[in-house]
Amino acid sequence: MTSRWSFPVRIAAALAAAGCAVLLDAPAAAAHSVLVSSSPAADASLATAPAEAVLEFNEPVENRFTELAVLGPDGTSHWEAGPASVVDARVSAPLRPLGPAGAYTIRYRVTSADGHPVSGTVAFRLTVAGPGAAVPAAAAVTRPDGDGPVPLWPWLTGGAVLLGTGFAVARRLSRADA
């Protein structure tokens, strides 16, 4: 008994099936990095300003795309004195002398070892005003590393186009044989 599918059609179908298997069998993403501790500690009340902001994560984070900002009580003034430094699971940034007493916020964004961005905030309170003066957001230190990791949608779109092309070729080859 002869097969109703020709050899090229079977090859194209096998390649399409293999492509689907590769796309569907992608490894599961590992857990994202989690903030374990900070200095100053979350919700701490301090009489003197810290010299640096330090964040400790449960696993090493990528050095790329790291952002760490310390915002003053007005929510817009920046108090970091330099770019964030990443050493394994520790992210830190030096601080200028803090100014007015009130609530300060450490805002961070890091990239986990699995490539996913993790962001959050840590609040602390300065109870005694310091000698520092606010710096506007435009003058704050930033890292020009880029916008973030590559999104997933181009990979999915490319896979769908490849799969659709495989099926179109298989169908055209099967009609040519008929």
From TrEMBL:
<feature type="transmembrane region" description="Helical">
    <location>
        <begin position="152"/>
        <end position="170"/>
    </location>
</feature>
<dbReference type="InterPro" id="IPR032694">
    <property type="entry name" value="CopC/D"/>
</dbReference>
<dbReference type="Pfam" id="PF04234">
    <property type="entry name" value="CopC"/>
</dbReference>
<feature type="signal peptide">
    <location>
        <begin position="1"/>
        <end position="30"/>
    </location>
</feature>
<keyword id="KW-0479">Metal-binding</keyword>
<protein>
    <submittedName>
        <fullName>Copper resistance protein</fullName>
    </submittedName>
</protein>
<dbReference type="InterPro" id="IPR007348">
    <property type="entry name" value="CopC_dom"/>
</dbReference>
<keyword id="KW-0732">Signal</keyword>
<feature type="domain" description="CopC">
    <location>
        <begin position="32"/>
        <end position="125"/>
    </location>
</feature>
<dbReference type="InterPro" id="IPR014755">
    <property type="entry name" value="Cu-Rt/internalin_Ig-like"/>
</dbReference>
<keyword id="KW-0812">Transmembrane</keyword>
<keyword id="KW-1133">Transmembrane helix</keyword>
<dbReference type="InterPro" id="IPR006311">
    <property type="entry name" value="TAT_signal"/>
</dbReference>
<dbReference type="InterPro" id="IPR014756">
    <property type="entry name" value="Ig_E-set"/>
</dbReference>
<keyword id="KW-0186">Copper</keyword>
<keyword id="KW-0472">Membrane</keyword>
